[in-house]
Amino acid sequence: MSKVFFWIVVMPLAAAVIVFSVNNRADVVLDLWPLDMVTQPLPVFSVVLAGLFAGFLIGGLVVWISGGKARRRARREGHRADRAEREIKEAEARLKRQQAETTESGHDVPRLPDAAA
Q: pTM (2 decimals)?
């Protein structure tokens, strides 16, 4: 599946970026406002691709921050499930000990069904 994705999506996208870069090599003067002394002539394609990359990173950061609540909840629920499993195992062990003690004393005690069933 990933090879199909690569050939259908990534390769044409890479080809489009290459064609865009080759066709837009003219220089543009980048003037950063608060830093008046920093003016740099750069190719158009580098400014556009840097802007796209910065947008990609900022979008990823926004998504990561917005997913924090869900990740925190999943982590909390995972800890809760682990704690519940430990408690179940401890309860089963106590029950088996009590059944063994009762059996040794001669009383008839019904058995629990296997957990696998």
A: 0.60
